[in-house]
Amino acid sequence: MAELIYAKDGRLLFTKEMKEEYTILAPNMLPVHFKLFQKAFALHGYNIVPLETTGREIVNEGLKNVHNDTCYPALLVIGQLIHALKSGTYDLNKTALLITQTGGGCRASNYIHLLRKALKRSGFEQIPVISLNLSGMEKNPGFSLSLGLIKKLVYSIVYGDLLMLLANQTRPYELSQGAADRMIDHWVNLLSEEYKKSKNVTYRRVKENLPRILEDFASIPVHRTDKIKVGIVGEIYVKYAPLGNNNLEQFLHGEDVEVRIPGLLDFVIFKVDNRVVDPELYGGGKLKHLIADKFEKYLLGWQDDLIAEVKKFPQFTPPTRFTETKKLVKDYLGYGNKMGEGWLLTGEMLELVHSGVSNIVCTQPFGCLPNHVAGKGMIRKIKENNPTANIVAIDYDPGATAINQENRIKLMIANAKRMKKMTEYREITEFDPSQVPNGETVKK
User: Fold this and answer.
1) Could you tell me the residue range of the domain that residue 121 belongs to?
2) Which of 34, 93, 191, 229 is most buried (CB neighbours < 10 A)?
3) From CA 216, how far away is CA 190, in angstroms rounded?
4) 185 in any annotated domain
5) CATH code of the domain containing 98
6) Which of 2-16, 91-105, 165-179, 224-238 has the weakest average pLDDT?
7) CA nearest 58: which of 82, 34, 25, 36?
């Protein structure tokens, strides 16, 4: 057992010795992305296990350790981690936990303190907690984000975003049910093999793989029809994690619609862009501004590469460039609105509407102030400026039932179908009056 060493602030440190021996448990938000993250960390000596457990028992475990007024994702993440420690699967003397910190004003930056409090309450004080952040908070001698690791994590985001985008645009039309999911599994397995050697995880290899992935998805037999398209936006965990949104994607696929979800790369660029904009709004050090600016350009370069490759396949719709999304927000709210998802949440709704996806589910943890301001609070203005926008805000918390959430989403989809029929009716009668049913007249 590794020696337990504490920092001056009293927290238990993750040491170099622990890096050699410990299993690191982490919450799982995006299944495809996180499988690749796991492999990227392994190349740098970290044995990270993204948790895939689900069920009401995780919510119950969270309720035991976190006040129910606390942000719902905190309750789920902490509940999932404590549940894993109690499962008997892991050696508690050789287990650590990993959790992200953005460093902003969102409550997510305080999850780590709530987690440590829950560990103490549950008798797991010997379990170290690692903060994953780009702000230099809570440093540990046995954990660091090297430049090489950061690059591999970026590659993983690019791969994950592309696989998610292609699967969502293929799944509703596939002739062989499950073909898109099988293709995801094929590429995750293929990439996992590549990630076993650092020499295979390079800029050049990613550039070679992107068109190969597109070609494979384009080869899936499909029958494309004019289906309703529904976008998902919201607080990052609830937007992506099946545990957080009651398997929202799966539910929507069951409603025979095409799902569109903005990629993780947008959120990462948003967080970096905040550090570029901060000195302009509030003042600050020039060095941090310069580093953030260079990193943002690097990320935007990858987004441009991704968009360029998708554009070569007309059956797929590429994502919108971050800078274009940022411009859309200009007349709605300021760039200083950056807590949580901040202005990006409004931007993603506008991005979807402007790309022809006017039906949107805005997911939010109950009581999430950034979401209520930049999400739910902006819906009225978005609808005023974009009459076709059909947006429903759905709250997620321990007491919310899936059936009530799904019924509200079904109502939104029903409204989308009604609007679609009205549009088709107008188009027919506009160009061919003989097609007006039952001899009705149409005012133009």
Assistant:
1) 16-142
2) 191
3) 13
4) no
5) 3.40.50
6) 91-105
7) 82
Rounded-to-integer distance, Cα 281 and Cα 185, Å:
45
Judge contact between 109 and 101, C-beta under 8 A.
yes
A 10 A CB-CB count for 251 gives 19
Backbone angles phi, psi at 175, to 5 degrees: -80, -30
Strands 390-396 and 229-234: unpaired
Token reading at 127: 């379990």
Dihedral of the alpha carbons of 97, 241, 356, 302, in degrees to the nearest 10 = 30
Examine residue 304 and state whether it is found in any structural domain, yes or no: no
The rounded distance, in Å, linking the Cα atoms of 15 and 34 is 24
Beta strand pairing call for 95-100 and 229-234: unpaired
Answer whether residue 296 is part of any domain.
Answer: no
**pLDDT over 90 percentage in the chain:** 75
Is the distance from CB of 73 to CB of 235 less than 8 angstroms? Answer: yes
> Residue 256: which of 214, 223, 292, 218 has the closest Cα?
223
Distance separating alpha carbons of residues 322 and 318, to the nearest angstrom: 12
Considering its fold, how many domains does the chain have in total? 2
Whether the predicted pLDDT of 1 surpasses 90: no
Q: Are residues 237 and 353 in the same domain?
A: yes
Query: Do 238 and 360 share a domain, yes or no?
Result: yes
Q: pLDDT tens for residues 385-395?
A: 999 999 999 99
Indicate whether 250 and 394 sit together in one domain.
yes
**Burial label, 165 (beta-carbon count in 10 A; 0-12, 13-18, 19+):** buried
**pLDDT in the model for residue 420:** 86
Q: Position 10: which residue type?
A: G
Q: Cα–Cα distance between 211 and 310 in angstroms, integer?
A: 8
pLDDT of residue 358 exceeding 70, the answer is yes
Is 200 part of a structural domain of the chain? no
The label of the residue with tokens 């010795």 reads 17
Nearest Cα to Cα of residue 349 among 374, 366, 331? 374
Joined together, the tokens standing for residue 181 give: 């999911």
231 and 359: one domain? yes
Q: How far is CA 386 from CA 114, 147, 350, 391, 401, in A?
A: 41, 43, 9, 11, 31
Please compute the mean of the pLDDT values over residues 141-160 and round it to a whole number.
96
